[in-house]
């Protein structure tokens, strides 16, 4: 959109300031002694912007996170397994609902960290939150290497929640008995050529008896 404002110059004469606003581009301004010259400048400059000749514009100022998610879902997700597609599509839908309208150059590590904390407050496990961050980071990597939409990956600068320690589980008495019984009856590679008594003793040793 272009506008022309009437102002007084330093010498008191009327001048005309033209301003051009276009989504994804810096605001362009120019001051002219006549309205016709201002209109002519607007016509020429808007034409140059439309043809992308006026100045270099970073792709990150033209595309939103929602644009990148849409392309990723369309081009990259189909290459993955069915379960991965379903899970990552859900995760990307969540990111889209919160940051989809933001231009890529406006999304900083601190903003992503804020939404990481939002996920944790929604009682998502650490492992789940890590997966949300992983798919976001991979999407940025594709955007950098293959699409040239952005120059930096802010998701890489965000710390991920620590993975929980694996749970240590001990066999119940019933499970121990079933294991020992199975060992006695086994005629496989490890137990088939030794007496049942030794087989049982070896199994008990494995179980810590």
How would you explain this protein's 3D organization?
This protein is mainly α and 209 residues long. The chain folds into three domains: 2-57; 61-157, Orthogonal Bundle (DNA polymerase, domain 1); 173-206, no CATH class. It is 49% helix and 9% strand. It has seven helices and three strands, in the order βββααααααα. The chain has helices at 35-50, 65-75, 82-99, 109-121, 126-145, 173-185, 196-206, and strands at 2-8, 14-20, 28-32. A three-stranded antiparallel beta sheet has the order 1-2-3, with helices on one face. The protein is elongated, with a radius of gyration of 32 Å. The termini are far apart.
Radius of gyration: 32 Å
Question: Main sheet: which strands, in order across?
Answer: 1-2-3
User: CATH superfamily membership of the largest domain, which one?
Assistant: Tyrosine recombinase, N-terminal domain
Number of domains: 3
Question: What would you call the structural class?
Answer: mainly alpha
Low-confidence stretches: 191-195
Average of per-residue pLDDT values: 80
The assigned CATH architecture of the largest domain is Orthogonal Bundle
